[in-house]
Design a protein that fits this description.
The complex is a heterodimer of chains A (271) and B (203). By secondary structure, chain A is mostly helical. Chain A contains 7 helices and 4 strands; from the N terminus they run H-H-H-H-E-H-H-E-H-E-E. In chain A, a hairpin with a 6-residue loop joins strand 3 and strand 4. In chain B, a hairpin with a 7-residue loop joins strand 4 and strand 5. Classes of the chains: A mainly alpha (271), B alpha+beta (203).
């Protein structure tokens, strides 16, 4: 963790969690971890929460839980120890927090060690093991054959139709709208999901035609993680990049798929 | 069988394998004919053979077994041709979570969250997809929660022969008293990898 410039008392490091933030504050002020000045640290901690709020940073609920823990400890320490009631001069109210901090700090160190190991091992290649892409790394364009194969599976699973069907017009246009509406809400959907609505074969077929049409018009793209893998349909402007740009920031939040990937409520990874 | 033939057999087996082969497997293969000690010597001979002739390949001990790898200096070329072999980076939260699992396995999700102070289910998914962790069973307690542990791929990705190669967690007591420096980074994995870029052209 880098030092922040003196004059601005603000670091924009993204904290992994409340413990991480607390450790940062302790280190910043050069405090003794086993004897934290709880009033001071509580104040600073709350200051950071305000700042995060001002910056509109997403704040996990855990940060607030920690805030209340800190305030509770502070209150407990302010209360005069009831001398009369001997049994109350029990353990330091900070003890539990300190232990947690120490343990967390240890694993943070361990994470640092692991990252050094990883760096050392990264240039060593073994005979092909399946590529370590996550399911979310849909970076290959699915070909029309892949689409057909996937569609055939959908059709095979659709119930057989019995008897006469009333003639009813289903236009490709209306299906195109449906698909686009769906992709407006989320930036990508699983191929199968597009077909979960209609159970009649004609519905499925027209939807599939709409899909092909949209791909032709470059409104959407069909991607997969590996050849013959599951297919996801992306809005064209939210499509993941092709492999060249994958390597850099493949964390948990953003799997190297470009800034738009996590837009909206699109979060689920496929089964 | 001549030791020389056995050695060639080992080399062939090691050439084709996609996973590290433990010595134990060879022991069973040559049951009675060659001892573990003999086999270990043969493997060492293969290692030094490849070194001596300046091969681009080397035989490494990793994840509880032996396997050929390319030498590190060729990595840029490998990444250039085989785009799917690009290395991925793990986020800080993924590394933290992974280190907790590595040291405390088998461990439940809520125990990890207790240590990290944040929710980790998304991170666990990522680590699982990258095959760095696996479900190692269920704890026989209320709710029978899943237990997580690391995989052989974890050892491979981090260049470890075995879990015991990790520095002990107690030794990782950080700066507080002393300035940071004493991380036991030297004791570790496969420093034979340290060969430098002697004359390998860059792509």
């Amino acid at each position: 963790m880098t030092e922040t410039p003196r004059q601005m008392d603000v670091s924009l490091d993204v904290f992994e969690g409340p413990l991480d933030l607390l450790l940062h504050l302790i280190k910043k002020d050069d405090l003794n971890i086993s004897d934290i000045p709880i009033a001071q640290i509580t104040q600073e901690y709350l200051g950071y929460l305000d700042l995060m709020k001002d910056l509109n940073l997403e704040m996990a609920g855990e940060f607030l839980v920690m805030a209340s823990t800190l305030v509770a400890i502070k209150a407990q320490m302010l209360l005069p120890a009831p001398d009369a009631l001997e049994e109350e001069t029990g353990p330091d109210p900070r003890a539990e927090l300190v232990n947690k901090l120490l343990e967390y700090q240890r694993f943070k160190e361990a994470a640092g060690v692991l990252s050094v190991y990883k760096e050392k091992a990264k240039d060593i290649y073994y005979r092909a093991i399946p590529p370590p892409f996550s399911q979310d790394d849909f970076t290959l364009r699915a070909s029309v054959f892949d689409l057909l194969t996937a569609f055939k599976r959908v059709l095979d699973q659709a119930p057989r139709e019995i008897g006469q069907i009333l003639r009813e017009e289903i236009t490709i246009e209306s299906k195109i709208r449906e698909v686009l509406d769906l992709l407006e809400a989320k930036s990508s959907v699983a191929f199968e999901e597009l077909f979960s609505g209609g159970c009649r074969r004609i519905d499925l077929i027209v939807t599939f035609l709409a899909l092909l049409e949209l791909i032709r018009m470059k409104q959407i793209v069909a991607m997969q993680a590996e050849v013959f893998g599951a297919i996801r349909i992306y809005r064209a402007d939210a499509a993941p990049q092709t492999p060249d740009v994958i390597p850099a920031e493949a964390g948990t939040q953003n799997l190297g798929l470009g800034p738009d990937f996590r837009r909206g409520d699109e979060q689920e990874s496929q089964a | 069988m001549e030791p020389r033939d056995a050695r060639n057999i080992l080399e062939a087996l090691l050439f084709i394998t996609e996973q590290p082969v433990p010595l134990k497997a060879f022991e069973e293969l040559f049951a009675g004919e060659f001892s573990r000690f003999d086999l270990e010597k043969m493997v060492e001979e293969i290692v030094s053979d490849y070194q001596a002739r300046g091969s681009a390949l080397e035989l490494r001990e990793v994840a509880g077994g032996w396997q050929f790898s390319s030498r590190p200096e060729f990595a840029p070329w490998i990444r250039k041709l085989f785009k799917d072999r690009l290395t991925y980076r793990l986020s800080a939260s993924a590394l933290e979570t992974l280190s907790i699992i590595a040291y405390k396995q088998p461990i439940t999700r809520s125990e990890i969250e207790e240590i990290r102070g944040v929710e980790v289910s998304a991170v666990l998914d990522t680590l699982g997809e990258r095959r760095l962790i696996r479900i190692a069973g269920r704890r026989e307690s209320v709710g029978r929660p899943l237990l997580y542990g690391t995989t052989p791929d974890f050892l491979k990705a981090f260049g470890l022969k075995q879990l015991e190669d990790l520095p002990s967690i107690e030794s990782l007591m950080p700066p507080q008293a002393e300035p940071q420096s004493q991380l036991p980074l030297e004791t570790q994995p496969q420093t034979q990898a340290e060969s430098t870029n002697e004359g390998v052209p860059q792509p």
